[in-house]
Amino acid sequence: MGVEGIGARVLRKEDKRFITGRGRYTDDMAPSKTAQAVFVRSPHAHARIVAIDTSRAKAAPGVIDVLTGADLAADKIGGLICGWMIHSKDGTPMKAGAHPAIARDVARHVGDQVAIVVAETKNQARDAAELVDVTYEELPAVVDLARATDPDAPQIHPEAPRNIIYEWSLGDAAATDAALARAAHLVTLDIANNRLVPNAIEPRSAIGSYDPAEEHFTLYNTSQNPHVARLVLSAFVGIAPEHKLRVVAPDVGGGFGSKIFIYPEETACLWASKRIGGRPVKWTADRSESFMVDAHGRDHLTHAQMAFDADHRIIGFKVATRANIGAYMSTFSSCVPTYLYATLLSGQYDIPAIYCEVDAIYTNTAPVDAYRGAGRPEATYLVERMMETAARELGVDPAELRRKNFIRTFPHQTPVIMAYDAGDYDATLDAALAAADYAGFGARKAEAARRGKLRGIGLSCYIEACGIAPSAAVGSLGAGVGLWESAEVRVNPVGTVEVLTGSHAHGQGHETTFAQLVNDRLGIGIDKIAIVHGDTDKVQFGMGTYGSRSGAVGMSAIVKALDKVEAKAKKIAAHLLEADESDIVIEDGKLKVAGTDREKSFLEVALAAYTGHSLPAGMEPGLKEGAFYDPTNFTFPAGTYVCEVEIDPGTGKTEIVQFVAADDFGKIINPMIVEGQVHGGIAQGIGQALLEEAVYDRESGQLMTGSYMDYAMPRADDLPSFRLMTTETICPGNPLGMKGCGEAGAIGSPPAVINAITDALGIRDIAMPATPARVWEAYRAAAPAMAAE
Amino acid sequence: MAKVSLTVNGKALTAEVEDRTLLVQLLRDVFGLTGTHVGCDTSQCGACVIHLDGRAVKSCTLLAAQADGAAVTTIEGLAVGDELHPVQAAFREHHGLQCGFCTPGMIMSAVDMINRLGGPLDEETIRHELEGNICRCTGYHNIVKAIEAASAQMAGLSQAAE
Q: What's its EC (chain B) (predicted)?
């Protein structure tokens, strides 16, 4: 692997600018003559906008302009779109309401933008925003899933009667019902997956600017996928044709899904810049705005039944889920609770019959879309809570019940679309159980009991689908885009290399891992390799980074481009060395004639390619190759997490005393970076299980958790150190054998935590987040005699 | 308007700002020191931590005028030339950062923590002391490791100097 090749623990190249304060995030940029924007937002969850009087605001000091939804409509700026068509089980297309970048007639959630104020300074814009006089007629609002489809519930979009966007299904209903009917044991659970706010620490930001001479727009923004942003802003919103719109996503401070989407504010900044004559218009979210308008995650209510035969084998799984979509359909909101959720309901288990119904529902809340894991955490939470509950009801060891039902032959076609290509679920289970000393838990529980603590252990055997995804397959399922990735490898005349990638890094360390891949092939050292990303003017196209796809898909595109570069370099070297091309090998930055001492350095070959003085007959000069890689399948990372908790029955406080994660990510490029990804994912999963929940007031529709003072972000002293290990089955679907690691931690950890807490308390279920108050109440209800002591 | 004179990273600077200007706005928007970040509006996240007269403070909780006459160190002033501060080096060595946005505040808090408490620091102390800094990427695991290592190294260095 070499010290800087595949598999090496290489320190990150990008770190120096971040640790010295030289990172360059969108809000750090101040193009000359930049004007500052502030949005006027609805204080109501649901209200008719009767009138907007901007006259006082326009007259305020420093104000350049105040624009409303009427101005937007007059300029024929289109609405935002949801890019994945889902059909209901009766064949009708999803019922999406309009999503204007600035609300015109109706505000549909607290924080919905109703005007944009552009001023010389941010303080002036803020002051003037206070002077925009909006007359609202308040309407009844509905924020919770259970009530949103009631016949008398407020109607949010005229296009979607009873607020139902689609009623979708997957799987074989008859076969599943038959399995349930003949079950020896039936496990039933009603489960909520709590609503979360992604909370990347860098708030979203945008600078839109318009060049009237060239009729050209530039957008700097906090995006995980600048090319997709350009595509949507061009083709659907109608800002400008693609060749007249450049989108740049510079350093981006975390995303976790929330920066995939094309949001109203970016659109408004571009449009406003043109309206004010071309001065750049900048908006940066306050954290309070992030809470109100960034797409939230999860928010499911599910009723599920799992059928077992007398031998404890799963014979059927029936699921009915209501998914909260919020007030508008965000960019990928439709596919998250369908194709990224129900397709994973087989878990790691051989289940012959699965049937899932999903109803997607509008509410007067922030839009809900992909958040780290996106559908797969919801599926895993459900499956692994079912397995744990089943084991307890059947009176068998939870690990052994899982083991009994593991899939062991590959490829394995599940009843819910996915064809698992490779895996060894026993290996990760064994590794995790051994590391956690599962066998010794009883003694630890007894010892904890002597200290007055309730100790519990919980498992989670997760699977996820990453490497999204074969374009033809997702196209047939309704995706509006292909999900390939592109790369260009550009060798400079002096033998240094630039890789232009359509992937985007916002913490994942691509500048290091992608360089490791190139170095593994060319042997020139990672300092001679630059990774270029995040600018539509530099990189031809790309689908961006989400769904743990940058390794399996993004790096595969680089491999294909490298194959072409190597092939041409070998031809040139063979010509220079008067050898046969098939005898040339590349080692340590040299092209050698195998078995001889004849060689040319990579620099000499690159220089020859660019001087063109001595090239094989008919060969074009230059050494630069591009490639598109379309995945052949999803990839299937999987693993086992073990969580052990101690609960103080007096306070209900849960302490995680041990957390073990055994993951199979296939081939790993940089173990240090992979561990970091898992650490962060687990922290977000523990956050969901113990701390985090976005809460709306049921009557007023107000967001009750609108700041870090109300929304419990995991802090350092809420978390333990983690013990990680990996096993490896190579993914056969891509050239590097990679599966992806970005989301596993967030997917696998919530059920492990909740399984441990319910084990400690001896209860069937507890709602996430399992706060001390909830745990204390559950304990009091479960053990009144003990609590009375 | 308020006239504010202060020393930033060893350099004497003066600015005329609106009374309501926060110290972090002065640093970022007027002096162009964009390494100090703003991640929230309730003084919770700690991305804006700087040193004011040698003590860690959240520069979003202070008016610029309150820093008049003070000596401020920001993340840009921590390294000496090309030589990283041991805490900066440890964050890289132990992969204590991912997206880098919370990192300046984390590092400034960590330096202050070690300066106040000495070293080496144990995990429990570090986790407790980090309560005012939020990271969404790392799960804190490697941040704790980095501070542990840096605190041990700095304790060794100060011992050697005695």
A: 1.2.7.4
